[in-house]
Amino acid sequence: MMGPEHVTYEFATWWDIGGAFYPVSAVRSADGVMERSRAVFPGPAAIVPSVQGVRLTVPDTALTFGAAEPAFSDTAPDTVRIASNSFLLVSPAFTEVVALARDTVWIFDATVGDVRARQDSSWIARLFPGTHPVALVVMNMAWPHFAGVRSWVAHGATIYSHPGSEAFLRRIIARDWSAYPDALERSRRSAEFRFRAVRDSMSVGGGAILLSPIDGISGEGALMAALRKDGFIWASDHVQDLDHHNLYVSDLRRTAHRLGLTPRTISGPHMRLRNWSSVEALEK
Question: For the chain, first and last CA: distance in Å?
C-alpha cells in the first residue's frame, strides 16, 4: 500500500522433527528495517552442522509483479463549503479539508495517493485561483489518510506533523519507486522534503489556523486543526462518528477547551459537517 518494498524473511533457527525441519524463529524486514519477529520454543534445542540446515532456493519461475493498483478506488471529490475560504473535499470514501489562509493553501489529510492528489489539486486551482504555497498537515499515521504525502512533496508542499511522525515520513519519502515511478520519483532531483514539527499548539496562516497535538492517552501522536475564524475543528481519523461516546472524542473536546476554542462545526474523513454541539452532547 505504500509503494514498492524490498521484503526479506530470515529464518534463523530450525527444529528437527523426525527429519523434517520447521522454523523456530523468523524475522521480517522491509527496506532494511525490521518490522516484526516471531519465535516459538517447542522443546530442548540442539546444535547441528550447517550442512544439515535447510536450503531455500528461489525458483526461476518466481512471480514478478506489475505496477501496483491503488488500494482504494475512489470517485472524484465534490465540495462542501465550511466558510468563504475553506471547504471539505468529499468523496464516497474520504473527506479532506482545504483552506486559504493569507497566501497559503492548507490541506488537512492527503488520502489514497497520486490520483486523489491530482483531483484535489484541480479543485484547489478552481477554489483559490493563482499561485499559492501549499502546506499539508499530516494529522496522524493512519494509512491511507497520508497516502498522498509523496505527491504533495513532489509539488513543493511543506509538511506539518507531530514530531513522532517525522522519521516514518522520511522513510516514506526516501523509498525508491523507480520501478513504477510516482509523482515524487519523477521529480526526485528537484523535490525537497520540508518538515515542521508541531510539538505544542502552533498558530499558522497569520493566526487563522491553530494546530495542536491532541491531549490524553488516546492522542497517540495525532493532531487537531482549528480554523479559528470559521469556528471549525478537524481531527482526521481520530473522530470516526459522533453518535457514540468514546475516549477519542472526549480527549478532542478536552483539548479544544484547554486551547480556549469555541467551535461551531466539526468534520472527519468519514462524515460531513456536524455541529460541535454533538460533541458536547456526548459528554453529557
Answer: 40
